[in-house]
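Q: what does this look like with uracil bound?
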Amino acid sequence: MRMVDLIQKKRNGESLTEEEIKFIIKGYTEGEIPDYQMSAWAMAVYFQGMSKEETAELTMAMVRSGDQIDLSPINGIKVDKHSTGGVGDTTTIVLAPLVASCGVPVAKMSGRGLGHTGGTIDKLESFKGFSVEIEKETFVDMVNEHKVAVVGQSGNLTPADKMLYALRDVTATVDIIPLIASSIMSKKIAAGADAIVLDVKTGSGAFMKSVDEAQDLARAMVSIGKEIGRETTAIISDMSQPLGKAVGNALEIKEAIDTLQGKGPRDLEELCLTLGSHMLTLAGKADSIEAAREQLVETMQNGQALDTLANMVEAQGGYKEQVYDPDQLPQASDVVEVTAPADGYIEQIDAEEIGRAASKLGAGRETKESKIDLAVGVMLQKKVGEQVKKGDVLVSLHYNQESHVKEATDQILQAYRIADSEQKEPSLIYDVIK
Ligand code: URA
Ligand code: CA
């Protein structure tokens, strides 16, 4: 087999066989196929697409390129959740203990944040002493004992995806659905998921700007799941404004704690209940979405969900009193309010711009090496559809360094668009694809 022939075959619009896809991924990972040929192949895929079968083969070839986490020593069906990324997306920190408190084991590997999006692992480090670097055996034991652990990624998972993603990033071949779908699904499968719930975001703050695009990506991922025998459900949810009110590490932890007690922002709670009920159903813990939802609400009300978070924090070396008394979490030294420049109705809140403002205050990393300030961030006081009068507080900025406040304030005012006429609150859940 020669790579040049496979590039040509794809360029001409033909489908590649399982053997051919394995040859490409193995060859590329082992350094036998050079970047220039791989780039040409990615561009051919960009213009010609890939069939369902090819996309599933590509996913599995990337899974086999590195380590695979074996979660079989954990009892029960392990359901993983993945979000395509957003701003202020606190769902994992709510969902992991929430779903675990209903008896579904959650063995979750999460990432750190870069740029305008935050990372779950960074947020959890707001708990004093919380450790995210956990040995594989300890990880499995923790999940068997407490039903939940959220750790950083360990091992060499999907190196082919890492290499290919880096190449796509610099060859204008990122935004093509079969490559995105296989990239995301390969990481979930290598991390050991039996079943997968996907939260595909759409809107200004998301990768997929329109509902149509998000549906196409969701269908491609659900189809991969079907081809390879891992049940997958995708929710299409709104990211046309940040989720919840808090954007920033400790602020989002506090928001997650509120939500676990049924006292969180309505949109965050609704999304968590939706994703959570699909996780419970896939895990065989409920016969219907409605029954699953009732179980989740009950654990919020009777305190079990919060206790599960506290147990998880303690098991991972953290200070669990902070769960019951969030005022002990890192707090910024100052708060300043950004107010509405005019009367009207909130028409839009650019999530990316809000994320950048939080990052500017120190909540995010500008480069991989930057150190983040856990205490700082943005609290949204008004969301899309709400009426405001000139001078009403739009946002509170929690900060430690005065020098960043001016720029962050400008970014907030950029992000908010105020209209004269009444504005509809956007839908939160657009579709469920199974
Ligand atoms: N996120 C991923 O993990 N992979 C892609 O290809 C795009 C977004
Ligand atoms: Ca939030």
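The mean pLDDT is 95. The pocket of uracil (ligand 1) is lined by residues 165, 179-180, 183-184 (CB under 6 Å).
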